[in-house]
Amino acid sequence: MSSASTSKITSTLPSGTTKNYFLKTGTGQAAEIMFAGEHASLNALHNAVPSLCPRSYGWGMFAEGNEKSFLVTDFLNLSGRGGSSERGETMSLAQKMAKLHTTPAPIPEGYDKPMYGFAVPTCCGDTPQDNMFTESWAEFYAERRLKFILGRAEKRNGRDEELADLVEKTARKVVPRLLREGHLGGEEGIKPVVVHGDLWSGNASRGTIMDGGEEEERGVQDVVYDSSACYAHSEYELGIQKMFGGFGAAFFEEYHKLCPKTEPVEEYEDRISLYELYVL
User: Fold this and answer.
1) Exposure b/e, 69-93, CB count within 10 A at least 16 = b
2) Cα–Cα distances in Å, from 182 out to 136, 139, 222, 267?
3) Dihedral (CA of 159, 163, 167, 172) sign
4) Would you kindly state where each structural domain of the chain is located, as residue ranges?
5) 18 vs 208: CA distance, rounded Å
6) Is 95 in contact with 206 (CB distance < 8 Å)?
7) Tens-digit pLDDT profile for the chain (280 aa)?
8) Which residues pair with 28 in a beta bridge?
9) Residue 105: phi, psi to the nearest 5?
10) Cα–Cα distance list, 223 to 57, 77, 152, 255, 265 (Å)
11) For 143, phi and psi rounded to 5 degrees?
């Protein structure tokens, strides 16, 4: 959120030790939606791979009644990505993302199996996302991503008939062609996994998660933040990663050794191009 403010909070615990927290604040309904989504997103990622990102402790509204919202997480002491070659015993970012993308999604409350979507709305940048749980990945991507963002754009800027026609054709023809059940993933199909949802180079770095526990003791390692999570096809994550750069060939080579490309492999580049459309 472009208008968010950040602060560091230092607290003295009953044991006498100090703990640092990261505080993010913002005003208006957009901040409230964003912080609720980021709280759930960080904890979904942290639950799957604890060393990947800070955990969130809570979010809410300040008592003053000024429509100001807050988010409180572990403090992340960033040091930049330049030292990534000296990892010691810590996992690389590629290894952490591969673990994230091979960890089965939990079953949402009220359902009997994992679903695509997320329990709360999230924001990609300042744009809210419709994360309504959906059984079909092709349907989720067509309806909750492509068509939804088109609707948001039309509401803000008016309708462009050529753009609307292209999105409709993509949702009706290209998405089923590449992502339909029984085709994507072959006979085994695919299963939803949690994704960061906004993983460009600006949301990944090297740093220390100042949680006072095992992660802090491990010191500097590869971390991510500012997540906009959902349960999705693992390759959905790679669209924005490839589009904005910052993740070189070595990253993807290491990643795909642990999280292989989905069948049909020959359509991998087509799927990545399709997933890039959402962030254009």
Assistant:
1) bbbbbbbbbeeeeeebeebeebbbb
2) 11, 14, 36, 15
3) positive
4) 86-279
5) 16
6) no
7) 456 899 999 999 888 888 999 999 999 888 999 999 999 999 999 999 999 999 999 999 998 767 899 999 999 999 865 544 455 568 999 999 999 999 999 999 999 999 999 999 999 878 889 999 999 999 999 999 999 999 999 999 999 999 999 999 999 999 999 999 999 999 999 999 999 999 999 999 999 999 878 888 888 999 999 999 999 999 999 999 998 888 999 999 999 999 999 999 999 999 999 999 987 6
8) none
9) -70, 150
10) 18, 10, 31, 15, 29
11) -90, -45
- Virtual torsion, Cα 182, 186, 191, 192, nearest 10 deg: -80
Q: Are 78 and 206 in contact (CB under 8 A)?
A: yes
Pick one of 3.40.190.10, 3.90.1200.10, 3.30.930.10, 3.40.630.30 as the CATH number of 86-279.
3.90.1200.10
Strand-pair partners of 33: none
Q: Which residue has the tokens 């460009």?
A: 200
Contact 70, 85 (CB under 8 A): no
At 196, list the tokens: 């960061």
Supply 58's token pair: 């809570």
What amino acid is encoded at 51 in this protein?
S
